[in-house]
Design a protein that fits this description.
- The structure is a single chain.
- It is built from 27 helices and 10 strands.
- The protein has 714 residues and is an alpha+beta fold.
- Strands 1-2-3-4-5 form a 5-stranded antiparallel beta sheet, with helices on both faces. Strands 6, 7, 8, 9 and 10 form a 5-stranded antiparallel beta sheet that branches.
- The longest helix has 34 residues.
- The chain is globular and about 95 Å long.
- It starts with a helix and ends with a helix.
- The relative contact order is 0.10.
Length: 714
């Protein structure tokens, strides 16, 4: 019976993989306009195919256990808003870390803070998100810095005992993301031109420190992204949400793009599309690895257990072996492909295992039951390995309970190869053709064979696992402690701190950030300087702005040109932010759907068009193109009038070009032609402004800057 169930489950899994592959090939063949809809369909299909509800085989004993429902946000998250003098608010997401012992007895720990510049009013139109602080991200100690510069030192050296009283370092300024790009380019040039010629010791030390510093920052960005995704997916808190959907997309998109060399140059309009694309790829990767690991575990008579985040997403998985199967399967053939752990059937240590184990109860059909159930029998399970499911190739081995050095040497393989070739031999994939060809073949073979050697870094999986251990309440405390200890030993970065220390540092850094926000010469002054730097675009052309940026880079950030603030410039700044908000909204409407009347709130569209009309002198070609597209995609007479009103008022030459293009369309309906002719031949009276409340206290406006438009006019 067991054999038949195993064969049935294997056939079922193969069928699912074939269906997924066929759907994916179909998606690739589609044109660009249809690919997004196919991606949505494929994601729904993946979820339905990969839901662990009725798998057969031995691993059904674990998969059929009831999974916890997604936790509501008030149970795991708290929001704290602090007003900052000068017109801003500091929004902090606190999480209840039940998985670790937090000093002081309170499990609520502040993890991420975001500064929103509101210009001191209640309108969301002129808001601008500024700094993001992952509060576990701290300045390393001098000992950690020196250790991070030691070549080939792939180990932690200790923890930072306490946080500084200074304000914690932000990982990104959302309003000036391009600075990160120019800083990367500058430091890369400085490394190549000034530091590398001093010889291998200086080259290896400086490059090692830069790599460790980059990985340390990246790990905390990944954790902040995971936390924001959890906050977004669980049920909402009472009252208005802290961030609208467009703001969350901006934060998450900008943080994801920090991993790209020119990511800071991506326009705001493309952030949501990029975020959706990354989420789709992440779901596809997790689904693929989930099924791959499950099938391999089943083929080797092992037990597969997915580990879930509080929102129900599966990011990691555990493999177990039943002690009752060890004697029965002694000498059984074993294939470690994709599992990358030693044969459990020849490991005599498991027969007398003294480490962590769990006793669970099953019935005669090997299904999990409560101990009080009649006929229930106990089975002892021993954990073998823990895997991450976000690797783009194969499941990544994160913890081997029998060999702690096994995952570390696999992660070290990539760093050693990179450090030897780049820092010692000065060989790169782009500058040496034989090395490029050899590396390409090696990567292809290891990927195809499922060898977890020289694979993409486990940094994302490790960072997410730290968050899972902190938030997951279903894991046994002893098992959680053992996994946490393994993680600290596996870590390659001397700048990292362990989980308990990070929780303490986060609380201390949040106190320092609050003190900095309340000081008269603290965050409020920094905010004013940032606004003065933002005013440069209002007073100077592109050439002058480039020169100012070059001076900033060459002075290592010491010089930043700022305008002298005055009421006139402050008013211009307010209008510029509002204009950018309405232009971005109209471009999003024009880019999204052919059925604007159904998918968007037309009153919001008309309000934005009216703002363009009122400030037509500042309008650019993007505003004109958006108005022309909206005119063609709506049948609402009033909305069309607003589009033509804006096109006739805009002084940019593009507006005249769009009007001529519209007048030459042959397939335009008669009502549209008549309205267009009337605007081209007869002077029009100014259109009355559309009155729409923008009070931040109204949650329907504040919480849905872009969401309100997606509900339509129902």
């Amino acid at each position: 019976m067991k054999k038949r169930r195993s064969q049935a489950a294997s056939s079922e899994g193969l069928i699912r993989l074939k269906i997924i592959k066929a759907c994916w090939n179909m998606r690739i063949c589609l044109d660009k306009s249809s690919r997004r809809n196919a991606s949505v369909f494929l994601s729904i299909l993946l979820v339905s195919l990969l839901t662990p509800n009725s798998f057969l085989g031995q691993d059904a004993r674990l998969q059929d256990q009831p999974q916890p429902a997604p936790t509501s946000s008030e149970e795991i998250f708290r929001l704290e808003r602090v007003s900052v003098a000068g017109g801003a608010e500091l929004i902090t997401i606190q999480a209840r870390l039940d998985g670790i012992q937090v000093p002081g007895g309170s499990n609520w720990v502040p993890l991420v803070s975001v500064l929103r510049d509101t210009l001191g009013d209640l309108s969301p139109e002129n808001d601008r998100l500024r700094y993001v602080w992952p509060l576990t991200y701290t300045r390393p100690t001098m000992g950690q810095r020196l250790s991070g510069a030691v070549p080939f030192l792939y180990s932690r050296v200790g923890n930072k005992k306490s946080a500084s009283e200074k304000a914690p370092p932000p990982v990104l300024d959302l309003a000036a993301a391009d600075r990160d790009v120019w800083n990367k380019i500058f430091w890369t040039a400085l490394q190549s031109l000034l530091l590398d010629p001093y010889g291998t010791p200086v080259k290896a030390a400086t490059r090692s420190y830069r790599q460790n510093s980059s990985d340390y920052r990246k790990s905390h960005i990944i954790r902040a992204l995971s936390l924001l995704a959890l906050y977004q997916s669980v049920e909402g808190c009472e009252g208005a949400p802290a961030f609208s959907q467009s703001e969350l997309a901006e934060i998450q998109g900008r943080l994801r793009l920090t991993d790209k060399t020119f990511g800071g140059l991506v326009g705001d309009l493309n952030l949501r599309g990029y975020q959706e694309q990354q989420l789709m790829e992440q779901r596809d990767t997790r689904g693929h690895n989930w099924e791959l690991l499950r099938q391999r575990a089943e083929a080797e008579s092992l037990l597969f257990e997915p580990l879930q985040m509080p929102d129900g997403s599966t990011t990691h998985a555990l493999l177990w072996v039943a002690k009752s199967d060890l004697a029965a399967n002694q000498g059984k053939p074993y294939d470690n492909r994709f599992l990358n752990i030693l044969n459990p059937w020849t490991d005599k240590r498991l027969l007398t295992w003294q480490g962590y184990s769990e006793t669970r109860f099953v019935d005669s059909q090997n299904l999990p039951v409560s101990p009080e159930t009649s006929g229930a029998r106990a089975t002892e399970l021993v954990p073998l390995a823990l895997y991450g499911l976000d690797n783009p190739k194969i499941p990544t081995l994160l913890v081997d309970f029998r060999d702690g050095f096994n995952p570390k040497k696999r992660e070290m393989s990539r760093r050693v190869l990179q450090d030897v070739t780049r820092n010692v031999l000065s060989v790169s994939r782009f500058g040496d053709l034989p090395y490029f060809l050899g590396r390409t073949v090696f990567d292809f073979v290891t990927g195809r064979r499922g060898m977890d050697v020289n694979q993409p870094s486990r940094l994302r999986a490790y960072s997410q696992l730290k968050l899972l251990l902190s938030l997951n309440q279903s894991l046994d405390p002893e098992l959680r402690e053992q996994i946490g200890n393994q993680l600290e030993r596996i870590s390659l970065n001397p700048l990292e701190n362990d989980l308990k220390v990070e929780a303490k540092l986060a609380s201390q850094q949040y106190e320092a950030l609050l003190a900095y926000a309340k000081r008269p010469d603290g965050l409020s002054q920094k905010l004013k300087r940032d606004r003065r730097a933002e005013m440069v675009k209002l007073e100077h052309g592109r050439t002058e702005q480039v020169l100012f940026r070059l001076a900033n880079i060459l002075s290592f950030g010491k010089y930043t040109h700022r305008e002298k603030a005055n009421p006139e410039l402050e008013a211009k700044l307010d209008v510029a932010r509002r204009f950018a908000y309405h232009t971005r909204f109209l471009r999003e409407v024009a880019k999204s759907s052919l059925q604007i009347d159904v998918t968007w709130n037309l009153s919001e569209v008309k309000r934005s068009l009216q703002f363009i009309v009122d400030h037509a002198q500042e309008a650019d070609a993007k505003s004109a193109r958006a108005a022309a597209i909206i005119f063609l995609r709506t049948q609402d007479h009033e909305t069309r009038r607003f589009c033509l009103e804006s096109l006739t008022r805009i002084t940019n030459p593009e507006a005249k070009t769009e009007l001529l293009r519209l007048s030459g369309l042959r397939d335009l309906d008669q009502a549209g032609k008549d309205l267009l002719i009337s605007y081209l031949t007869t002077p029009r009276e100014p259109t009355r402004p559309v009155v729409v409340s923008s009070d931040k206290s109204n949650s329907s406006t504040k919480g849905n800057k872009s969401n309100s438009s997606t509900k339509g006019n129902q």
